[in-house]
Specification:
Layout lengths: L1 H12 L31 H7 L24 E4 L10 E6 L9 E6 L2 E5 H8 L1 H16 L14 E4 L7 E9 L5 E11 L6 E3 L16 H20 L4 E5 L8 E3 L2 E2 L4 E5 L2 E4 L8 E3 L9 E2 L3 E4 L7 E7 L3 E3 L6 E2 L2 E2 L20 H4 L12 H4 L2 H13 L4 H8 L4 H7 L5 H9 L5 E4 L1 E7 L2 E3 L6 E4 L2 E6 L2 E3 L9 E2 L4 E6 L2 E4 L4 E3 L6 H4 L5 E7 L2 E4 L2 E5 L7 E7 L2 E3 L3 E6 L7 E22 L18 E23 L15 E12 L14 E4 L1 E11 L4 H5 L8 E3 L2 E6 L10 H9 L8 E6 L19 E4 L5 E5 H6 L23 H4 L9 E10 L3 E11 L5 E7 L6 E7 L8 E6 L11 E10 L7 E4 L2 E5 L7 E3 L18 E6 L8 E2 L7 E3 L2 E3 L2 E2 L18 E6 L3 E8 L4 E7 L4 E5 ...
Parallel strand pairs: 8-9, 9-12, 10-13, 11-16, 12-17, 13-18, 16-21, 17-22, 18-23, 21-24, 22-25, 23-26, 24-27, 25-28, 26-29, 27-30, 28-31, 29-32, 30-33, 31-34, 32-35, 33-36, 34-37, 35-37, 36-37, 37-38, 38-39, 38-40, 39-41, 40-42, 41-43, 89-91
Antiparallel strand pairs: 1-2, 2-5, 3-4, 3-6, 6-7, 14-15, 19-20, 44-68, 45-54, 46-47, 47-52, 48-51, 48-53, 48-54, 49-50, 49-52, 55-67, 56-61, 57-60, 58-59, 61-66, 62-65, 62-67, 63-64, 63-66, 68-71, 69-70, 69-72, 72-73, 74-75, 75-78, 76-77, 76-79, 79-80, 79-81, 82-83, 83-86, 84-85, 84-87, 87-88, ...
Length: 1694
């Protein structure tokens, strides 16, 4: 698993380029995916080799890829899923035969005897799924409610029950036809049941039954906590292979509990109801969906998880006939509560196709939830959200309490005012799921019911080998109430389940963003789902939106879905990354779905509270769908939506969903929504490439679709390439065959030549006055899809039971509202004169001259009026028309001249309301519309009014969205610009509009005309284009000053009239800055307006602004342009053209939607070689606000070098460029920097560096409105967690010129830690008894990515050292040390240390988030603990300590022997002896090391000086180390001498026969050199004794031999001072008799030194030698004595 994670991470890191997903360099499987062994388990290789090929979709197939009428009739892959067996049952599953068109059922034999069929067995062992399937087919097929032949799903599973424990059974399975005839050869498998498990009943551990609590107090809390501890105690005590049982309840009671934690090798059998506590304190906060997530959730009711990646939780079964009840939401429907919300509404929400027996098969329904609604709809979900808000400390208790006690949506909404959206979002995220399993291996979940979770129902994450069957999920319509989820898990088999959910039914995902790769999260793969029944829910089969590390190898088959929003749902957000691929959907029946298939990359989760680092946009590819029937696709049959718009918005990354295959898919009753809701077509293909639709047949339409004339197929095909429609697809009812043919036809390019030439625009005469930027009748369009604010006064007045008018789609006949037409009125009294209508938002009214709206109307008499009003349904009328024309089959363009009221702010967009009024007396009036078009004046840009109606705030820019420019104010701390007068004066009227009176405070102008400083109240004007500014003012006798920066020129204008008038108009030049102020105080300014330059301005500033033509936003003079041209492409349909621009092989720009055969490419540099690639595409019919295209085809390319030398001039950047970084998390932050592409047209884009590394290159075309935006915002990723990251933004040109922005710094969150500590390979734990009978445990330390926070100590499964329960995520620990002593009194009574016990040590980490508390709410639980600890079964019994002497002999030191026992005696102190008595062992180590190289020269000189003329032969160190209770000390001196025998190195042995060599030992100790005496030299060794330990030297002296005179043993150093004859060697320890000093030159024997020398022991010899040697010795002594007497006499005589 680890290897795959790393491989996947490496492969997916290569995806970070804009464009198609590329897996270059990674080993691929059958369908071109990153793969490891086993990732092709459910892929039909023959089919997917075709689908995944590059040529797929470029031509028709010779035959369908799937054929169930051919092949073998043998079943395959007969298996027992993971842990699908126990002591009395065994489950089987198998794959259908290749040929299964005639398969009706399967016979199953047990030990040779027919046991039954799969379908009959299914009714018993998947009763809920079976019953709902039966009702489904009865309703849609038997009763004929469907005109589609519903696919009859196959049942290919069986469970044998009533078996004997520990017994092997033989099973055979064979297919049969409808007559019972067996087909093919039976397949066989053997499986053994388990031994009978040991059962632990939670009641035996103290659990008690109560009512199901929906509130809590101290008494209830005590019971809940008691139950939680009892259940956990049973789990902890469960032996390997054992079973913890939650027994059936009596009298409707339940077991209320907090979170419990499962372990390996156990079964949790739930036969009663385990009811989640309403108190969220009983579910520790700390669950992270992914390690890098920034939101935090509560842990589940039942959990099985470990952070120990190498040691997962293994072999866990959760089963039983009972229920896990989440206690999340109140009963209700949507926002309507059922009764008190606490009484079950089971069976009250039956729908079409449901069983009629609601008593047995009825379903509950829960309220919908939401960030605010949770406070009156939730139970446990409310409690956790409430406590989060409370513990932020941001709000007073009364505020939070009002939210907690809300009983309606209105009350909750009101109470939530003033609470930040982020806090509400994060509070809502804390909700707990019901069953959470993470990092588990071998999991079985079967038979239980999961009901009413606060969040998800079942989350099985990062796990392997999973089986789920006959699980019932009842969570509809609770928010996020997903059914069975398998995130980042592998080898999943899911069959026979029933889900009725508030979110996705069966879901899987693979994490999100770059964090998925940083964390090495595994791909979600090898998933087999079949024989399930899915009801309600958002997605039936749902993959994503978490696609970060890929979802692949999925087989989804033989499943029935009813009332699902999206039957097959594949979703990804634009920044989630990854892919979904190698997925097969076949043999399914679907009814009443909004959308059949959905593939989208524009998904957004409104409830998501987490932020992550962005990855590349994901793609879906290599999909196969076969043999599926769908009755009632209300909004879409198939929607393939890649969120691209290269014509309108190049900032959206190009991608597509591709290599998709649909075969034998039948739709009926399509379009129940009437009007298109999603993307203007029942079949919508946007960004779909290389795909084949074979026998995809639309059989019929819903009556609403027919009445609204939306009954057509294949209507919306955009941005697609290589599509094939084949077989009965062409027979779809009302198929848009022209669009289908166009999509298939492709484009033929005959002339591939592209011409490039330098382009120089014609210059205008600067002396010619101009009225402003001419728009030549510019138009805009607002889509009818965006309409909002619907109203119908008639409905309100008459209380008619009907819905408000609503726009469903556009560009077809559809209703936007009625004056009581026949369909809705049903004969009720008509209501002439009442108004109804809606608003088009975001309309640009600047220069608006005319509105055009296509209206389709049906009438019999009377008239209808349309009034166009500004901003509200009762706003000022700006246009109107009377509708008298009737055109039932189409639209009439209604053109209405526009008159805008005086003073309207044209710098902002407005709502335009269309208000319809009936003047007739009959009911049948219908008004339908298309998109609203506005036509602007063909003269100058419209005048813009700056909104200063509420005064101005210092430093804030106003009119930022205007075309002309902006204005802001400067002020000091005591003066406010445009503060309202106090006392207020009556408003003034200017041009029919009222204005408040404000005071503008100011100081006098400087005498030298210098620009005022920031302390002066003034206006600052920043024009974008050449324009004028006019000020509405009450004239005074003051002098007004208008100053231009940077030259400080000033011009005055004195107003003399006291009336309010447009007394001042000044011309402004683009790109400059102007300051305005007045001499004196309290001048009045009411209105500020921008307009085109005028010739009679009050002041003509420098350079004669008013006499020059206005400019567009200025471009640098160095910017170049190239004109491209090509030959028109002949095609059956209109075409678009597009150009991609490259520099050095890198795409730097793109433009699309060109209608001519030439274009100008701007923003180029001189002297640079460019490559231009020109494309042609077929123009699509307008839809979805896209001017879209299909079949993009390369025309040709050309290289062109612009004229002139390479432009290396510096980039022009405005003053004050800046970079800021916000919202930093682990590895990213949001970067915001000054845009300078608008200031210098040569700027191509921006490079972003993080800590010196290039992390992103952002080209202009990837930035929306790059040429005009002042600030660019983009995420900066690949930051380093927990440090001050340095970020550098660098603007660049095509010539490589760069402009470096000021460096910015941001501190990111500390690193996230998701791995448990690690033990060393040789780590061990030891345990021993102390003399007091305590248990002392010592272990080796673990290591961790962050830090080891502590250890947990267990003896025989019992934890020690903490009052808090140890679970896998909390911070409770025994100790932070690596030793721990358990007192005898703490051990169980009768604890026998001589017997085997299991002692285990677990290690846990600590990291910043786990240590973080939620305000005062200290319950974070995100610690990571090992699952497999250090273990020993041995306790060393107490005994007195031992002394363990040892010798550490270095190889290059002289070989040294020592009497180790005497060493111990010499070094032990009295304290040491006491330690031995306490049972502590003591080690004594003698170390002998070579000192030749380590001894300093000065020391060597000291040694040599001891014996004159000697030579140092060998230096060596002798040291002694004593270790007591783990503490080591060096012993330098001992109380007794210790004898050592050192071998004379061979290199020191004398080989010169003419020389005599004498050896000595010299010791250097405490800086003093001294000869060691006595020594014994014999047999090539030197023996000496010492009590001082340091450096020693073997030294020697050589002397010439006297011929014929043997050496005399015992020759004294001084001839006149022989050895004392009266002190011979001790008789009982003589010198070695058989080794006389015969040859001192060879040093083979002899003794030197004084009489205290300890001689060696005698050598072994024969008896004769032993007899004669004493005699020789006596004779020797006599001779010495005689010699001594003779010498003495001689001396006296002399």
């Amino acid at each position: 698993m680890r290897r795959f994670r790393k491989a996947a991470a490496l492969g997916l890191a290569a995806l970070m380029a804009v464009g198609s997903v590329n897996f270059a360099g990674i080993t691929t499987g059958a369908a071109g995916l990153p793969t490891t062994d086993g990732h092709d388990k459910y892929v039909n290789k023959n089919v997917f080799d075709v689908i995944s090929s590059d040529s797929f979709g470029t031509k028709e197939l010779e035959s369908p890829l799937f054929d169930k009428t051919k092949g073998s009739s043998d079943i395959t892959d007969l298996q027992v899923p993971t842990l699908a067996y126990d002591e009395s049952s065994i489950g089987l599953v198998w794959q259908k035969p290749e040929k299964y068109d005639n398969v009706a059922d399967y016979n199953v034999y047990i030990n040779g005897k027919l046991a039954g069929t799969a379908r009959e067995n299914y009714k018993v062992n998947a009763a809920w799924a079976a019953k709902y399937m039966e009702s489904f087919y009865d309703y849609y097929t038997t009763q004929g409610k469907s005109d589609v032949d519903m696919v009859n799903v196959d049942i290919h599973a069986y469970r044998a029950t009533g078996l004997q424990p520990d017994t092997e059974y033989t099973f055979k399975v064979v297919a049969i036809d409808k007559d019972g005839k067996e087909l093919g050869t039976p397949q066989e498998i053997k499986q053994k049941t388990t031994a009978k498990a040991e059962v632990l009943n939670i009641k035996d551990f103290g659990a008690v039954e109560t009512e199901g609590y929906t509130s809590y107090d101290d008494e209830k809390n005590a019971i809940i906590e008691k139950n939680t501890k009892a259940i956990q105690a049973a789990i902890d005590a469960c032996p390997e292979g054992g079973k913890v049982v939650i027994p059936e309840n009596t009298d409707g009671k339940v077991f209320v509990s907090g979170a419990v934690w499962l372990k390996s090798d156990m079964t949790l059998e739930v036969n009663g109801t385990l009811w989640a506590s309403p108190n969220s304190d009983h579910f520790e906060i700390g669950f992270l969906m992914y390690p890098f997530y920034t939101d935090t959730r509560g842990w589940g009711l039942v959990n099985a998880m470990t952070s120990d990646e190498s040691n997962p939780i293994k072999n866990v079964r959760v089963t039983g006939t009972g229920t896990l009840y989440g206690n999340g939401w109140k009963y209700g429907a949507g926002s309507t509560m059922y009764g008190d919300g606490l009484t079950s509404n089971k069976g009250k929400n039956t729908q079409a196709g449901d069983p009629t027996d609601t008593e047995t098969w009825g379903l509950p329904r829960y309220m919908g939830g939401g960030n605010v609604n949770v406070f009156y709809q939730g139970i446990q979900s409310k409690d956790s959200a409430y406590k989060y808000l409370k513990n932020t400390g941001n709000y007073d208790d009364a505020k939070i309490e009002s939210l907690r006690t809300a009983t309606t949506s209105a009350e909750a909404t009101e109470a939530a005012k003033g609470i930040s959206k982020d806090d509400l979002k994060f509070a809502y995220a804390t909700r707990s799921s019901l069953l959470i399993m993470r990092n588990c291996e071998n999991v079985y979940v079967g038979d239980i019911t999961i009901e009413n979770p606060s969040n998800h129902s079942v989350n099985i994450l990062d796990s392997r080998n999973i089986a789920t069957t006959n699980v019932k999920v009842f969570s509809y319509d609770g928010n996020n109430g997903d059914g069975l989820g398998y995130g980042c898990s592998q080898n999943v088999i899911c069959w026979g389940n029933f889900t009725d959910t508030g979110d996705d039914n069966l879901g899987f995902g693979a994490s999100v963003g770059m964090g998925a790769r940083d964390s090495e999260i595994q791909t979600n793969s090898e998933v087999w789902m079949f024989d399930n029944f899915l009801r309600e829910g958002h997605g039936g089969l749902a993959a994503g939106s978490h696609t970060g590390n890929g979802i692949q190898d999925v087989l989804f088959e033989d499943t029935v879905m009813n009332h699902i929003d999206m039957a097959f749902r594949f979703k990804s957000a634009p920044t989630n990354g990854g892919f979904g691929a190698n997925i097969t959907m076949r043999d399914c029946a679907v009814a009443d779905t909004n959308q059949g298939w959905v593939f989208t990359t524009s998904y957004g989760d409104p409830n998501s509270a987490s932020s992550t680092e962005h990855a590349e946009i994901g793609e879906f590819y290599n999909f196969a769908s076969y043999n599926v029937s769908v009755y009632g696709a209300n909004q879409n049959t198939i929607q393939v939506l890649a969120d691209v718009d290269p014509v309108g918005d190049t900032s959206k990354p190009l991608h597509s969903h591709h290599n998709m295959y649909f075969q034998d898919i039948t739709f009926g009753n399509v379009g129940g929504n009437g009007s298109y809701k999603n993307k203007n077509g029942w079949e919508t293909l946007i960004g779909c490439d290389n795909s084949v639709f074979y026998n995809v047949y639309n059989k019929s339409y819903n009556s609403k679709s027919v009445s609204k004339k939306t009954d057509k197929a294949w209507n919306n095909i955009q941005y697609c390439n290589n599509l094939v429609f084949q077989g009965t697809t062409w027979d779809s009812l009302n198929a848009c065959k022209d669009k289908m043919k166009a999509a298939m036809s492709g484009i033929t390019v005959t002339d591939k030549n592209v011409k490039a030439e330098d382009y120089k625009p014609e210059t205008t005469n600067p002396d010619t006055p101009s009225g402003g930027d001419e728009t030549t009748g510019e138009t805009w369009t607002v889509s009818v899809d965006k309409c909002l604010d619907f109203f119908n006064d008639a409905i309100e007045a008459k209380k008619v039971e009907t819905s408000l008018p609503k726009v469903e789609t556009k560009n077809t006949i559809h209703n936007i509202g009625y004056i009581y037409d026949n369909e809705h009125n049903k004969g009720k009294t008509p209501a002439p004169g009442y108004e109804q209508g809606f608003a088009f938002p975001d309309c640009d009214v600047a220069g608006l001259e005319k509105l055009i709206v296509p209206i389709a109307r049906q009438t019999d008499n009377g008239t209808q009026k349309v009034s166009v009003r500004l901003d509200s349904k009762t706003g000022t009328e700006i246009a109107s028309a009377t509708l008298t024309k009737a055109k039932a089959d189409g639209y009439v363009d209604i053109e209405m001249p526009v008159t805008l009221p005086e003073g309207v702010d044209t710098s902002k967009t407005h709502k335009i309301f269309l208000v319809f009024t009936s003047t007739g007396s009959t009911a049948n009036y219908v008004a339908n519309v298309r998109d609203l078009t506005g036509v602007k004046s063909s003269t100058a840009l419209a005048r813009e009014s700056v909104d200063i109606s509420q005064g101005m705030t210092a430093g804030t820019e106003y009119n930022t969205n205007g075309a002309y420019g902006t204005v802001k104010s400067l002020e000091d701390a005591t003066v406010h610009v445009l503060a309202e007068l106090d006392p207020a004066e009556a408003p003034v009227t200017i041009g029919g509009a009222e204005y408040k009176q404000f005071v503008q405070a100011s100081t006098a102008a400087n005498s030298d005309g210098a620009i005022p400083g920031n302390g002066t109240a003034t206006y600052v004007f920043s024009p974008k284009v050449d324009c004028s500014v006019t000020l509405h003012s009450r004239a005074t006798s003051k002098v007004w000053y208008f100053l231009e920066s940077p030259d400080g020129a000033n011009v005055t204008n004195t107003a003399t009239d006291s009336a309010v008038a447009d007394v001042m108009t000044f011309n402004l030049r683009a790109g400059r800055t102007y300051y305005y102020y007045c001499q004196g105080s309290k001048p009045m300014v009411y209105g500020i307006y921008f307009d085109a330059p005028v010739a009679d301005a009050d002041s003509l500033l420098k350079e004669g602004t008013a006499t020059e033509a206005p400019s567009t936003p200025s471009q640098s003079a160095e910017a170049k342009s190239v004109k491209l041209s090509w030959t028109a492409v002949e095609n059956d349909t209109d075409v678009f053209y597009g150009v991609d621009t490259y520099v050095d092989g890198v795409k730097v720009d793109m433009v699309d939607g060109i209608t001519d055969t030439n274009t100008i490419i701007n923003r180029l540099l001189s002297g640079v070689k460019y490559t231009f690639k020109v494309y042609v595409s077929e123009k699509c019919a307008p839809a979805n606000s896209l001017n879209a295209e299909n079949n993009k085809t390369l025309i040709g390319e050309t290289e062109f070098t612009t004229e002139g030398t390479k432009d290396t001039a510096a980039i022009t950047a405005p003053e004050g460029t800046s970079v800021s970084l916000e919202s930093a998390i682990y590895t990213c932050a949001q970067g915001i920097w000054t845009g300078i592409s608008k200031d210098d047209a040569r700027v191509r884009g921006y490079k972003i560096y993080a800590n010196g590394n290039l992390v992103k290159t952002l080209y202009n075309y990837q930035i929306k409105n790059y040429a005009s935006v002042d600030k660019i915002s983009n995420q900066v990723g690949r930051l380093t967690p927990g440090i001050d990251n340095k970020v550098q933004v660098v603007a660049f040109t095509d010539a490589g010129v760069e402009y470096k922005y000021p460096e910015a710094t941001v501190k990111t969150l500390e690193n996230y830690d998701y791995k448990a500590p690690v033990w060393g390979s040789d780590a061990k734990v030891t345990a021993k008894e102390t003399k007091d009978g305590d248990l002392e445990i010592t272990w080796d330390a673990a290591t961790d990515d962050t830090a080891v926070g502590g250890y947990r100590v267990y003896v025989d499964g019992t934890a020690y050292g903490s009052d808090k329960y140890f679970n896998p995520v909390n911070g409770a620990k025994t100790t932070t040390e690596t030793t721990y002593t358990i007192k005898k009194s703490e051990l169980p009574e009768g604890f026998d240390m001589t017997k085997a016990h299991t002692i285990t040590i677990q290690a846990g980490d600590t990291w910043w988030k786990a240590e973080t508390t939620m305000g005062t709410f200290d319950k974070m639980a995100g610690f990571n603990w090992t699952n497999k600890g250090l273990t020993t079964n041995e306790i060393k019994a107490f005994k007195k300590g031992e002394v363990k002497p040892d010798v550490d002999q270095a190889e290059d030191a002289p070989k040294t022997d020592v009497d180790t026992e005497k060493v111990a005696d010499a070094v032990l102190t009295e304290e040491d002896k006491a330690a031995l008595a306490d049972g502590k062992d003591i080690s004594v180590k003698v170390k002998v090391a070579n000192a030749d190289e380590t001894t300093e020269e000065a020391v060597k000189e000291k040694i040599a000086a001891v014996i004159k003329g000697s030579t140092i032969g060998k230096l060596f160190d002798i040291t002694i180390e004593k270790t007591v209770d783990g503490v080591s000390t060096e012993v330098k001196e001992t109380k007794n001498a210790i004898q050592f025998t050192v071998a004379i190195p061979e290199s020191l042995v004398n080989t010169d026969a003419t020389k005599e060599r004498t050896y000595a030992i010299v010791r250097i100790h405490n800086g003093e050199a001294k000869e060691v005496t006595p020594i014994t030299v014999e047999n090539g060794t030197i023996t000496f004794s010492t009590s001082e330990f340091s450096t020693y030297a073997i030294v020697y002296t050589d002397a010439d031999k006297t011929p014929g005179t043997p050496s005399t043993p015992g020759t004294p150093s001084t001839p006149g001072t022989p050895s004392t004859p009266g002190t011979p060697s001790t008789p009982d320890t003589p010198s070695t008799p058989d080794t006389p000093s015969a040859d001192n030159g060879n040093n083979s024997g002899g003794t030197t030194g004084d009489a205290n020398t300890t001689p060696s022991s005698p050598s072994t010899g024969d008896m004769a030698m032993r007899t004669i040697m004493p005699l020789v010795t006596v004779m020797g002594i006599a001779l010495i004595g005689a010699a001594y007497v003779l010498m003495t006499r001689t001396k006296k005589e002399d």
